[in-house]
Every structure is written in structure tokens, then in C-alpha cells.
Amino acid sequence: MMKYFFRSFKNNILARSVILSMPIIGITRIVFVILSVSIYAIAFRNASHLFLSFIPIVLGMIWIIGIMLDQLWFANVIFFAFIVCTCMGFIFQANQMDMIIGFLSSLIVWDLDHYISILRSVSWIENRNALVFRHLKSLMVTITSSVFLLILSKMIQISLHLVVAVALAAGAILSIRWLSSSIPGHIKE
Amino acid sequence: MSRSKFIILLLFFIIILGFGTRNRGILSLALPLIIYLGYALFFFKTTEDIVIHRSIQPLRGDQSTLFNISLTIKNQGNSIGIIRIHDNLPEGLEIVQGYPDILTSLPNGKNIQLNYSVRGRRALYNFKGITLSTYDPLVTIRSIKFQNSEGKFYILPDSSRLKKINILPKQTQLFTGVVPSRAGGQGVEFYGVREYQFGDSLPRINWKITSRQGDRLYTNEYRQERVAEIRIILDARARVESASTSISIFEHSVMAATSIADTLIREGNQVGLLIYGKYLDITQAGYGKIQRERLIRALSRASPGYSPVFNKLDYFPARFLPMESQIILISPLEIDDLRPLLSLGSRGYHVIIVSPDPIRFRMTSGEGENQMSPYIRIARLERRMLFSRLLRAGIVVFNWDTSQNLDQIIGRKGMELRPYPLRVIP
């Protein structure tokens, strides 16, 4: 296992040089992993859940190893684990704003992980910098609007009857189903 | 799992957990994911109006030739933010220069040129089309489309130039050629003596016999030289194939078939080809440069294969061969090929076999057993026995050590082929 790990690590030195050729993405990923982990850890510690504060640290370390090994499935698994961490934070009364910032940071890392894997799978990228900046711009737009809407949702508080809440949940699930069916992805001839 | 589906699963998880725990904070986590997916869906654009033009230069060449492939892709529809264009290369090609895929943006009316050079082994390479993957700006949603853009080129088999192939078929064609026929007339090789007939050329009178007989004149007759109808049969059965890491014995068989076909066509003969393997690939007999091209192209696309019907030579379709014609079989041979070959000889076909030696081939390629191994010795004995029985039936066999030049084996001085040879050559 260790042998495989070190061989993978060595083989990925070349791959990592691609990250260096795109330092914005490379540095951003690492910075946001650290940011996310620190926010979660501090939030859990402030909420007097010292044991829980170690979980994001371990997850962050695994994610950084995943980035080094260029294993994409790490990103999906750890991102899901971070979402579970956030949910635990909400349940255990940790600071909500910290949880949301931690979650958004992990969303950025997860997005960049996938983006860089697509860039690596292609042998030639035309106008690489323009494409990277366009992606980062789109990402920033979504994150900024998310932050804005989240702040808005904190300000506006509506109390709902259980029946209305269930109806809303059903509506949300149905609309997500509709959304998933409308996403293209099949091969056309 | 695609990213969009993963996000949808996360949304399900968050919504169910949020409503389950009645926690507003958890529910609020769905917002960034919905915005993320919504943004991707809103800005995702695809187009049906992409025109592709493929050019390949040259369309035929040998294994050292560099084939330049150029793809021009023009978008005549919606502007696309991110598109991946991937040319699906046929198997067996090695990219020497350039790239067959690109990630770029493709605004309306923009042209993209994709140039690359490839090299490969002998085969017919067919390009089917290219894969176009269109992405949204966040690269979350992908639409994959396969677009036809056909093209093909041949990598021709290697061949060695043979000086001459001596054949003596039972039947020859009408036209003058270089194959000695079984009839007297104009020619070079002595055929016999007959009584002088009015119109015979005077220098051809055999004065010795005339003086001995006294009362009549006698003239020499020479073997007429005609063109012959020849069928080359290439054995492409998977069971006779023996491959090393670099080259297979089948490649040697193809090379031999190409060299023989080329030489026979150059001599003006009518040559046809039958590739006996996974199926019967028949090239009808013909003359000239066009026929040579047809044969070489058929040999380019030949590959060994398995068929339960054609696994043995027992079902060899002799009806495709003209009666008493010359057959050149190129095959490493198996021990159970004896009976069908004897049957072919007994039907009046004049059969020559060029047999690349699989035992020697495996030993020279470094994969075989020790030369003194009992397996090798038994295999050799079997092969020798097979050859001796073929020879007794009047079938000429060239046992070809593939490390030697084919011309050295076939064109060896003094190895004139006769219908009833006495030994295996060499």
C-alpha cells in the first residue's frame, strides 16, 4: 500500500507540474482546502466540540493527498464528507456563517478539482489562460450570488406550517427531478 | 458519475436531511448548489451546425510514411463557450506530431484547424468521425455528439523484389509472356523436334537429325512462353499465426504474398488473390497496374482471424479456382493441412507452397524453446514428414526461414521448379 502510494506520488510529480503551469488554480485549491478546514475546526472548537474539530482536519489532509495523487474520486468523497460536517455543525449549534463559508470553500475546491482534471485530459488547449479565467469568473459569480442569497435568507425568516413545508419539499424534489431529466449528456449521432 | 448528477444527489440528500431535521441551516446549503447548477444550465449551449472537413495526405504509403491529417471544424450555429473536439483514431496508429484533440471555445463562424501526423503498421485505416463534447462555463454539464467525418488511408505491406518466379502450370493463357507453356512453338527453351512444315524458319532446321534421316527435313520446336493465370492463396487462419512482440509470422506471409504478386504481375500474368481466414476475401484475377493496386490493397487490409468453417483447409473452396491453374499457397502449414492439399494436387492444380517456418521464427524472435528441446525436435520432424508427403504428391514446398531474404529462397540458382521435384527447397 505504502509502496503504491509513494510510486503514485512520484509519478504525479510531472502531472503536478501542470498545476504549476496554472498557478492560479493550483494555489487556489490548496488555499481553499486550508481555509475550509480551519473554519470548520475553529467553528467546532468554539462550539465546544473538540473531538469534531479533528474530523475536518483529517478530511482536509486526505483531500490534499488526493490533489497530489490526482485522484478525482477523492474530491467527490471528501466534498460529500464536508457537507456532512456542515450538517453536523448546524445540528450541534456551531456558528452558521462559519459553516456556510467552510462549505462554499469546499465547493470551490471540488469545482477546481474537476476543472483541472478536464484540462489535463486534453492534449491541446487553445487560449488556455482565457478559458481558465472565464471559468474562474463563472465560479466567482455563482459563489457571490450564493453568499448574497444566503445572507438574504438569514434576514428574511418565514414560519411555515408543516403541511406547507412538506409540500415545498415535494415540490423541490420534483423540480430537481425535472432538472436532472433536462440535463443533456447522451451521445447523439 | 457526471458532476451534474452528483450535485443532484447532494441536493436530494440536503433537502431530505433539512426537512427531516427541520433545520433551516441545512436547507440553506441547497441554495449554493441550486445556483451552481442553474448557472450551468442557463449558460449551457450546444449546436447542431458544425461542419467538419477532413483531409489526409498521402492516401497510401509504407510503414515509414508520415500521414498528415488535417481537420477543419467550422461552427455555423450558436457560439459555444467550451468545446472539446476529439478525433477518434483507428487502433494501431502512433501520433508523431500534433494532437488529435483540442479544448477551445468556438464562436459562431469560427474555423478551427486540427493538424497532426501519424504513422502505423500495415493496415487499412478507416476514420469514422469525431466526438464533440460541449460544456457549460462551469464544465458541469456535458453534451456528447458523434459527428461523421470519414476518411481512410492504406499502409501498404513491405515487399522484397524477386528476380523471377519459375512456374510451370498445366495451362497457360493466349498472350505471350514469360511462363513456359506445355506446347511447342516460338520460344527459347528447347521443347522437341518435328518434321519440317512449309513456312518454318530455316535457321530452326535441325541439320543433325535431317542428315541422319536423309529423306526429310526436321525443325526444332521451342517451348512457347505465355502468360499464366495464377491464384495466390494467403493463409490467414488464426491457428497458424505466431506472434512475437515486434512482428508476427503473418506479416511475413503478407510480405511474401505482396512480393510474389508484384513479380508475377510485372511479368504480365493474370493474378488473383484469396485470403483464407476469418472469411474468404477474394480478389478476382486480372492484369496490369490496376490489378497490382487491387492486390496490394487487399493485402494491406488482411488480418488473421478465426472462423469455425475456415479453421481447417478441408473446406477450401476449390470451385473459385480455374481448372488446372497455378496456385501459390503462402502458409506456415499445420500437420492436418496435408489431406486437403493432396486433394487439391490430385484435382490437377499445380500447387507451390511458400511456408514461413514457424519453428525457426519463434526461435529467432527469442520466444521459442531451446533448439535441442524435445518439443522443437518433434515439431521439426512433423514438419519434415509433412513436406516429404507433399513432395511425393508433386507439390513444391519452399521452407522459408523468415530471417533470410525471400528472393534467396525462391530465386536460388538452379532451383528450377518442375512439376515433380525431388526435394524440399532448401
Brief overview, please?
The complex is a heterodimer of chains A (189) and B (426). In chain A, 84% of the residues lie in helices and 1% in strands.
Structure description:
- The complex is a heterodimer of chains A (189) and B (426).
- Chain A is globular.
- Chain A is mainly α and 189 residues long.
- In chain A, helix 3 packs antiparallel against helix 4.
- Helices cover 84% and strands 1% of the residues of chain A.
- With 426 residues, chain B is an alpha/beta fold.
- Chain B has a six-stranded mixed beta sheet, with helices on both faces. Chain B has a five-stranded mixed beta sheet with strand order 2-9-8-4-6. Chain B has a four-stranded antiparallel beta sheet with strand order 1-3-7-5, with no helix packed on it.
- In chain B, helix 1 runs antiparallel to helix 3 and helix 5 packs antiparallel against helix 6.
- The longest helix of chain B is centred in the first third of the chain and has 19 residues.
- The C terminus of chain B is likely disordered.
- Classes of the chains: A mainly alpha (189), B alpha/beta (426).
- At the A-B interface, helix 4, helix 5, helix 6, helix 7 and strand 1 of A face helix 1, helix 2, helix 3, strand 4 and strand 6 of B.
- Strand 1 of chain A pairs parallel with strand 9 of chain B, so a sheet runs across the interface.
